[in-house]
Amino acid sequence: MSETNQKELIYGLEERISPWAALLTAVQHVLASVVGIITPPLIIGSVLGLNAYLPYLISMSLLASGIGTFLQAKRVWGVGAGMISLQGTSFAFLGVILSGGFLVKSQGGSSEDVLAMIFGVNFVAAFIPLLVSRFFDSLRRVLTPLVTGTVIALIGISLIKVSITDWGGGHGVANFGSPANLGLGALTLLVIIALNRSRSRVLRLSAIVIGIAVGCTAAAVTGHLAIQPLPAQWFALPQPFRFGFHFSWAIFIPIALVSFISILEAVGDLTANCMISQQPIEGESFRKRLKGGIMADGVSCMVAAMFSSFPNTTFAQNNGVIQMTGVASRYVGMYIGVILLLLGLFPVVGGLLQQIPAPVLGGATLVMFGSVVAAGIRIMTQNPLGRREMLIIAISFGIGLGIEAVPEVLGQFPKIIGNIFGHAVTSGGIAAMVLNLLMPHDEPQIVKAGAATSAR
């Protein structure tokens, strides 16, 4: 490893870090991800009419994310990547979960029946990543740097859309894109950039927290901090299978397909994490990290389903936080897990974090999500890109970004097809895998002796 690369990290993967610095860094990871963790249950609960259970669902999402994150960092008996791999509620399952919930409701099922079916099916689907991890070596031909780099870049591009939407004020707000919203996001972003370029380690470690604090203060002073009501329930203990356990093959099959596709997303995120944490992205140690990370994904999804939370996945935005702070110590991941677990036990704390204005979050996350895109490009280009590789990237990006931009193109297919393949990560990722398997490699060009002589 070069001296320049060594200086990019303040704390390496296995380096111990002081409790104060670890706590400060962990808080930045939590702030970067907490909205993403609680948004899927908010959407599912509101769409399926489960508002009475929303505080509990949000609380359990935070708790399950904490347990999964701790397991990823601790790496118990080979389960876990041994890195800061934050587990959060996956957006990829939203469509299939909503379709399954509507199916149960159409058959006369109650809200409790809907939740029992969703969590029962998700619990069984959690065995898929566990099985895939056992045969991961057979997938090496599929999950090449070209494929994983393409998926990482698509993930980052999709996240940037979320960031820009928050910067403008959030979905459906009347003043979307107003100068006040854009100004708050820009102020937050500028503070983070300025502090991140500081030579002070303390300022660099706290750049995101200070940036968000400055943005919230500016929002409060200018009257743009809208106080939302706090949850009525201040403390919640987890109850295994609180709503029961139901199962349906019709709902399981599409969720199982998304579970397999999510493994590709996890591999991409873990590969980017290895690169940012200055760990090998090839060889036996790398494969062990990927196996452990995928296994932890499966265990995390099982825990989530057991405690009434939706499927978890490895969050990409935290790779950006590692790059921003220069802290890759896995011990920070344990702090993150404990913080999220405590947030899950005290829903009122999550309610307080919801007070952060959307433009402030958008400004804070933009540079992180952009870093994910950059990491994907770095992985794609670690080997020379020939005509074959450029064609695979072009088609994968074209299909993935095109379908996500115009999801109506799948409108003539069954709705479940649109729910699964209407995202850049799924459609573009599958295209990259298929093309990489089927498209023949370029034959090496052989220079004729006579031509070589005349060229001299």
From TrEMBL:
PROSITE patterns reported for this sequence: XANTH_URACIL_PERMASE
Record field: transmembrane: 20-44, 50-71, 83-104, 116-136, 143-164, 176-195, 207-227, 247-267, 332-353, 359-379, 391-410, 416-438
Recorded coiled-coil stretches: none
Subcellular location as annotated: Cell membrane
GO terms under cellular component: plasma membrane
Membrane protein topology class: Multi-pass membrane protein
Principal subcellular localisation of the protein: membrane
GO MF term (any one): xanthine transmembrane transporter activity
Pfam families: Xan_ur_permease (PF00860)
Keywords (A to Z) from UniProt: Cell membrane, Membrane, Transmembrane, Transmembrane helix, Transport
NCBIfam families for the chain: ncs2, NCS2_1, pbuX
Family the UniProt entry places it in: Belongs to the nucleobase:cation symporter-2 (NCS2) (TC 2.A.40) family.
Record-given protein name: Xanthine permease XanP
Organism: Mangrovibacter phragmitis
